[in-house]
Design brief:
- This protein is α+β, with helices and mostly antiparallel strands.
- Helix content is 62%, strand content 7%.
- The strands form three sheets. A four-stranded antiparallel beta sheet has the order 1-2-3-4, with no helix packed on it.
- Helix 17 packs across helix 19 (474-489) and helix 25 (579-591) packs antiparallel against helix 26.
- The longest helix is centred in the first third of the chain and has 30 residues, at 15-44.
- The N and C termini lie far apart (102 Å).
């Protein structure tokens, strides 16, 4: 017998391990020879077993276990770092400091010491008694309970954690506390997972008769038997725990459709979706996305919505350079069902692993699928610790209703496969109709509504998913929580915390990075956004339509226009054309003064009925940018008709709000009330209320503007942009209406960190109003500095009316400074761009009169 351990050195990359492995080989071979001697004596009936040197066996046993321990000690890095990281935090255990994003967090000594104890043993229960013995002197025993409770409460407050929905510290009733988040140590790229204790199931009693006879036949006397059993069990346990896995963490997996021989169509697509949810829980496995599968099918001249048979999937597997494809089957067996899973090598076609489960009835099928998938994960090489931690039962992770799961599967296929958000809505609605507690279906419904511009309805569904408190899987929990914090509440800080932990837990998943890119845009962090977009593109190139689009948006925002154009051309050449990308290319063509390209992209987008109104409104902005107000109004009217025709009620209110703000900024105050009234005719989102309130403040309707501001503050108390962008702009504009520039400047101070935010379609609002306040205060240099930000960030401002007016306002600022040459240059720039403007636009009349005075 040979016990090769050279793979340990390959796995651990340490020559000392290799040396230890050779020693283990040698000693194990000697022990095996001892076992053979005993077995031969027993089979031949020879009673004399003196040839077995039991003391030598014990010695070899000790040596074997010694070398096993030595090998393991060499291979396993000790996690003794004084600075463990978890989520967005890092604890400096030597200095007693807690940092968030590198910034110290205020925390008292006792709460920090509790954190340090919990971080020593992530995933394990630390009892209240242990905390008392370690942290509280004996003479304070009477005060211990109140003191511990208060300290834990303070610790949770420092971590932004809660007892009812813990992300870091879980209360174990009547026992103590447990740290449940992944912990990363310095120098260690993988997190120490906080695994909960799992009780091993009882082992079945061995069969009697033949099995026991075989055991007796191999019996050996006394100490020799003990040594051999001990060594054999220990060696096999060590080898099993450190066997080479079927897959590595760099390998990818492709899922086939299930072979359904039951005749029941409810299983079609449903079991594959269920298996995907189960496997997506694993931080170890990486599934090829449906987008990449469909792109590959297209290259294979296969229908993108056809069945994924084993033959087709193997071809997909090879083309995507994946390691394994998984097939499944379900067949009837009387009143039962037989469920099978197989993992097959893409390269050789060899069967690598398989599992089979019996379901006692239709309602037990998802449970059987869950069990089979869990066992298969282990056989593919995933550690038991991560399987135990990330193994929410499938019926909890999704739904116990096969009909609901099937409808959800069809919704996902429509949304992610064909990129048709609106068309997926009926499927998700059907899913929650079958199971009102189907949390991830509610969240998907909210996300789809949000992406189609219906933010109010999207928030209703996103809140519903969050408030269900369903025991869903970890990836779905990240999705639900981030949707709630980011899109429902608008709390960008809490959303970032969820995204950071999501990234740490599933570093090969691009979803968190795609959403982080949008969050960075909202915070005005465009370099960081570009980093996220590039990483998302690297992690999942199959999401090309999305990842290419956000990459081009980032480059435009950073004024890297040529690089943006090259990237967009690559996307189209690679087959990732989309209406979203064409929107971005229209913006790019506008910045490059390429009118023919603008018209071409506009026509391509408008051909899709659902995007027609959005494109028409974008063209209305362009017409307004050049002072062609009559044309702008006509385009807005057509955009409204399109939005109404396609049932996009909130999109229609946004078009009205945009028109109100455009008219107000260009001086047509008489047009504002009608548009404002139309914008507020139905309940609408924060962005529409913000634009409408700003336009009313510009028009001098202070009372209504103030009322809308107060409503925004009440309705969105946690929203970062409402608090630090929208409200300061509205209130400052109200102050300017009252001729109080000093108050306006003071009100806008809180907006400074978010002034460059891509606040949906109202860009640099705080900058523009602050510049107006400085002009009113006759502080020319400071006003010029504000309006010059529009020139510096052309990629951001694009065709917004404030971007055009910034030239006029700069001219006014330079005139205040006495710099007539610079003032004239800015007036000429403005008048040149407005050479085809409607002659009766009030702003144009004012500009011409002011320019004449400078001559």
């Amino acid at each position: 017998m040979s016990c090769p351990l050279s793979w340990l050195a390959e796995t651990w990359g340490n020559p000392e391990v290799n040396e230890a492995a050779h020693k283990v080989n040698r000693i194990a071979s000697e022990l095996w020879r001892s076992i053979q001697v005993v077995a031969a004596a027993e089979f031949t009936g020879a009673p004399d077993l003196t040839r077995v040197d039991t003391s030598a066996s014990f010695g070899r046993s000790a040596r074997l276990f010694g070398f096993l321990s030595e090998a393991k000690a060499v291979a396993t890095p000790a996690k003794t770092s004084p600075c463990p990281r978890f989520g967005v935090f890092q604890a400096d255990l030597e200095r007693g400091e807690l940092r968030k994003f590198g910034v110290p967090v205020k925390i008292q000594e006792k709460p920090f010491r509790i954190l340090a104890v919990l971080l020593e043993r992530p995933g394990e229960i630390v009892t209240r008694e242990e905390l008392r013995e370690r942290l509280w002197p004996a003479d304070t025993f009477v005060e211990f309970d109140d003191g511990l409770n208060a300290a834990v409460k303070k610790l949770r407050a420092a971590l932004n954690d809660t007892a009812d929905r813990p992300r870091f510290i879980e209360t174990v009733p009547k026992r103590g506390y447990r740290f449940i988040a992944p912990v990363i140590y310095e120098g260690d790229a993988t997190p120490a997972l906080a695994d909960k204790a799992v009780t091993a199931p009882p082992q079945a009693a061995p069969e009697r008769g033949v099995r026991q006879a075989r055991l007796r036949r191999f019996a050996v006397p006394g100490s020799a038997a003990a040594a051999i059993v001990l060594v054999t069990a220990g060696a096999f346990a060590f080898f099993a725990a450190h066997r080479r896995p079927v897959l590595s963490e760099k390998d990818t997996v492709v899922l086939a459709d299930f072979a359904n021989s039951t005749g029941d169509p409810v299983f079609d697509g449903t079991l594959r979706q269920g298996l995907a949810v189960e496997l997506e829980q694993s931080p170890f496995l990486s599934l090829i996305s449906d987008q990449q599968i469909q792109k590959t099918l297209k290259l294979m001249d296969q229908p993108t919505d056809g069945r994924l048979t084993p033959q087709i999937v193997r071809d997909v597997c090879l083309r995507t350079e994946s390691a394994v494809y998984l097939t499944g089957s379900i067949a009837p067996l009387g009143s039962q069902y037989v469920l099978g899973l197989q993992a097959v090598s893409c390269r050789t076609g060899d069967l690598l692993a398989e599992e089979q489960e019996i379901a006692n009835g239709k309602e037990k099928i998802l449970g059987a699928l869950d069990r089979a998938a869990g066992k298969l994960r282990e056989k593919l090489g995933e550690s038991l610790s991560t399987i135990q931690k990330f193994d929410t039962p499938l019926e909890q992770a999704t739904t116990p209703s096969l009909e609901a799961l099937q409808a959800y599967s069809l919704g996902r296929k429509t949304q992610t496969g064909r990129n048709e958000f609106a068309a997926s809505i009926p499927f998700y609605q059907r899913a929650v109709g079958f199971d009102p507690n189907f949390a991830i279906a509610w969240a998907a419904l909210g996300s789809v509504y949000w992406n189609t511009g219906e933010t109010v309805q999207g928030a209703v569904y996103g809140r519903k998913a969050y408030e269900l408190h369903a025991p869903i899987s970890e990836p779905e929990r990240f999705y639900v929580d981030s949707t709630y914090y980011h899109y429902v509440l608008g709390d960008l800080d809490k959303a970032r915390q969820v995204y950071d932990v999501w990234n740490q837990t599933y570093p090969r998943n691009s979803s968190a990075r795609i959403r982080l890119r949008q969050l960075d845009f909202q915070e005005g962090k465009y370099e960081e956004a570009l980093t996220q977009a590039r990483e998302a593109r690297r992690l999942d190139p199959a999401k090309g339509g999305l990842t290419f689009g956000i990459l081009v948006e980032c480059l435009i925002a950073l004024d890297r226009l040529q690089e943006a154009a090259t990237t967009a051309q690559q996307a189209i050449a690679d087959g990732y054309d989309s209406s979203g990308l064409r929107f971005t290319l229209y913006r790019l063509a506008f910045l490059q003064n390429d009118a023919p390209e603008m018209a071409r992209h506009a026509a391509l987008v408008a051909a899709a009925p659902h995007f027609e109104g959005q494109m028409l409104e974008f063209e209305a902005k362009t017409a307004g940018y050049y002072g062609r107000l009559k044309e702008s109004r006509e385009l807005s009217r057509r955009a409204l008709e399109s939005a109404t025709r396609t049932g996009q009620g909130e999109r229609a209110t946004a078009i009205e709000a945009d028109a109100a703000l455009r008219e107000a900024l260009l001086g047509r105050i008489d047009q504002v009330p009608a548009h404002a009234n139309a914008a507020l005719r139905i309940p609408t989102g924060r962005e529409v209320q913000y634009a409408t309130a700003w336009s009313l403040a510009l028009a001098g309707d202070v009372s209504r503007a103030q009322s809308l501001a107060d409503n925004l503050a009440r309705s969105y108390p946690d929203d970062t942009l409402v608090r630090f962008n929208y409200l300061p702009v509205i209130r400052a504009q109200i102050a300017l209406s009252r001729r109080d520039p000093a108050q306006a400047i003071e009100l806008l101070q809180s907006a400074t960190p978010y002034e460059l935010s891509d606040a949906w379609w109202r860009i640099l609002g705080p900058v523009y109003v602050r510049g107006e306040a400085f002009l009113m205060a006759r502080r020319g240099a400071e006003a010029a500095a504000e309006f010059h930000k529009f020139i510096e960030h052309r990629g951001l401002t694009a065709n917004s009316p404030t971007a055009m007016l910034a030239h006029l306002q700069l001219g006014r600022a330079y005139a205040l400074m006495g710099d007539n040459a610079s003032a004239k240059a800015q007036y000429r720039e403005f008048l040149s761009l407005w050479k085809d403007a409607d002659p009766d636009v009030p702003v144009l009349k004012q500009a011409r009169a002011e320019y004449a005075e400078l001559k």
